[in-house]
Write a structure and sequence with these properties.
By secondary structure, this protein is mainly α. It has 13 helices and two strands; from the N terminus they run βαααααααααααααβ.
Length: 366
């Protein structure tokens, strides 16, 4: 004689179609959840949660000076995220944007370092072009290893970021070190014509922000209206179907990585030719890694990425304020950013899947 019994286990079942309203609500819900969780963390740390919320979430928007810094910070985040999102939608995961950002800064700095007396309005546009070329060149190493040797692009691009950081250290501690810089690891200050012109007088926001907006519009047109963008999306959603249709996967990998590298390198060039005005080791501040959060928080959509870049930039500026006014450690700011991404991914999972309780049956023997 036997008896059957069972336990109910939760199972995720994919929805036929995700709700548009739920998709739009996912980012603000993730932000609210991450905020609540981190407020609890701040209480456990003995910090005043009200002071942290004011400094981190409100203060960046309360004055034009603060908001202009948010715009300045949002520029490179937006530019890099737009480039990465194109690859992510095609399932090409470029995690090495930080290294491509550094190479773009190095390539752009070559002109003012080698020709410090050069003048003319041609200098800063050429620096931006060199920066884009440097980022693309660094990304091409990952593309080569991925296509020709089937190496994992996540690992290769990530390791190349570490190589790029060491190359930056070598240059700033060696041949490119400013002889009059009091032994600091930095290059010479760039001449006036090597600086990107200001876009908003009285702030540090420069023309590169306008260029970033134009490129964001171009990214939307490319992914939503062009046949090449359609092929990349199909390759990401249904690789086998793309193969049957004759879409070349190797070509898609090269294109996605080069686009991401160009965007990251251009952002690096705009950073050294903009607010920094010289090549420094502090150029590597995590823009490439934060842009991954920006891309996913924006739903990998060019328009959503614009808003997520502003959110992440505000959190970064607000985090600096909180470190001063609320005595918050920098690690807590990074935990906030990481928890925001985790909360968003969980929210998106419930947009695409529904939770069902299924009974798991067991049969006992006499």
């Amino acid at each position: 004689m036997s008896a059957s019994f069972g336990a109910f286990l939760p199972t995720l079942v994919r929805r036929e179609r995700g709700s548009l309203a739920a998709t739009l609500l996912a980012p603000p819900v993730a932000l609210a959840v991450a905020t609540i969780l981190n407020l609890g963390l701040y209480v456990l740390m003995g910090r005043d949660p009200a002071a942290v919320v004011y400094a981190m979430l409100l203060e960046p928007f309360l004055s034009w000076a603060s908001f202009s810094e948010v715009l300045l910070k949002a520029g490179p985040l937006l530019l890099i995220a737009q480039g990465l999102a194109i690859g992510f939608r095609a399932k090409v995961f470029n995690i090495g944007a930080e290294g491509q950002f550094i190479l773009g800064a190095i390539f752009a700095s070559a002109i003012p370092v080698w020709f410090p007396q050069a003048t003319g309005q041609w200098i800063w546009p050429v620096m931006l072009l060199l920066g884009a070329a440097g980022g693309a060149l660094w990304a091409s190493l990952t593309a080569f290893w991925r296509v020709r040797l089937n190496a994992n692009e996540i690992l290769v691009s990530l390791m190349l970021s570490l190589v790029a950081a060491q190359l930056l250290n070598y240059l700033l501690l060696g041949p490119w070190k400013d002889p009059n810089g009091f032994n600091f690891p930095q290059s010479v200050m760039f001449q006036y014509d090597a600086m990107v012109p200001l876009l908003i007088p009285g702030t540090r926001v420069n023309v590169s922000l306008l260029l970033t907006i134009v490129l964001s519009i171009a990214a939307w047109i490319f992914m939503q209206k062009s046949f090449i963008g359609y092929k990349l999306k199909v390759g990401g959603l249904a690789p086998r179907a793309a193969g049957y249709a004759g879409f070349n996967q190797g070509w898609a990998i090269w294109l996605c990585l080069l686009i991401g590298g160009c965007a990251a390198g251009l952002a690096g060039a705009a950073e050294v030719a903009g607010p920094l005005g010289q090549l420094q080791r502090s150029i590597s501040t995590g823009y490439g890694y934060a842009a991954i959060i920006v891309a996913y928080l924006g739903g990998l959509h060019p328009i959503g990425i614009v808003f997520s870049a502003l959110i992440m930039a505000a959190l970064s500026i607000g985090g600096d304020n909180a470190m001063v006014s609320a005595n918050l450690p920098i690690a807590a700011v990074r935990v906030f950013q990481g928890s925001l991404l985790a909360a968003y991914l969980i929210a998106v999972a419930f947009v695409r899947y529904r939770l069902e309780w299924r009974r798991l049956a067991y049969r006992s023997q006499p």
